[in-house]
Amino acid sequence: MKKFILAGLLAFFACQANAGFIQGVTGEDMVGVEVTATFADGASETATWAAITTGAGGAFGILPWGVLLDGDSFGEYDPLTDTLYGGFLMMNFYDFDMVSLSFSALSAGFVFDTAFFDASANGSGSGRELAASNPDVFAVYSDNYMDELYGTMTLLSSSQVVLASGEMGVFLTDTDQISEEVPAPAGFAMIALALMGMRLARKSSK
Predict the structure, then answer these.
(1) Residue 85 buriedness (CB in 10 A; 0-12 / 13-18 / 19+)
(2) Pairing of the two strands 44-48 and 34-39
(3) pTM over 0.85, yes/no
(4) pLDDT digits (tens, 9 = 90+) for 11-52
(5) How many CB atoms lie within 10 A of CB 104?
C-alpha cells in the first residue's frame, strides 16, 4: 500500500510539472515582454511588446527600430540551405548599428526554452537553440527559471554588430508561456491520495 501511495505521489507531481507551460506561443501572445535595443552611439531604448493582429505582435521603438513575430515563435531552420523560415524579424532604421537586443520576458510570464529536446522532462516540450540570419549573432541567457528555461535573452555579436543600420534580420528561438493552472485530473488525483492516506492511517491505528 505504501509503495502504491508513493507511486501515486510521484505520478501526481509529474503531472503538475507537465502542466506548467503553454507551447506554441505566437507573436500575439507575448504581450508585456520588454525589449531593449542598444546602439553604437550609446543610445538605448526599451519598447513593450504588444499584439498587432491574429498571431502577430511586436515591439517598436521611436529611434526607430523594431522586432516583429508573425506566427509561432519556434519557426523552422533548414540547415541544408541555411535558410530561416518564420521567426522573429528585427529592423534597424536608426542612424547607428544595433550592438545588442535584450528580451526581458519573465515578468510577463514567458521563458526561453534553450534545449532542442525536452531532456529535463519539465513539460516545456522541445525547445530551440538560437539560430540567426547573421552568423556572428549569439545569445546570452539570464534569469534562470528552471533547468534549460530562462527569463531573459540578450543577443550580442562577435563583430559588435547585431543588426547594421538600415538593415533587417531574422532569428529563431523558442518561447513558452508559464501556466499556473492545475488540470482537473491532477486535482482529483490529490483528493484520491488524501483519502487513501486517511484510510491507511485508520488501519494502522487499530
Answers:
(1) exposed
(2) antiparallel
(3) no
(4) 334 333 444 888 889 999 999 999 999 999 999 999 999 999
(5) 21
191: amino acid identity, one letter: I
Return the closest-CA partner of residue 148 out of 122, 109, 179, 186: 122
| Angstrom distance (rounded) from CA 83 to CA 76 | 9
Amino acid at 169: G
Q: What is the pLDDT of residues 151-202, one digit of tens each?
A: 999 999 999 999 999 999 999 999 999 986 544 443 434 444 444 554 544 5
Report the amino acid identity of residue 145. Y
Assess contact for 46 and 64: CB atoms under 8 A. Answer: no
**What is the dihedral sign for C-alpha 16, 18, 24, 27?**
positive
State the SS3 of 25-89: CECCCCCCCEEEEEECCCCEEEEECEEEECCEEEEEECCCEEEEEECECCCEEECCCCEEECCEE
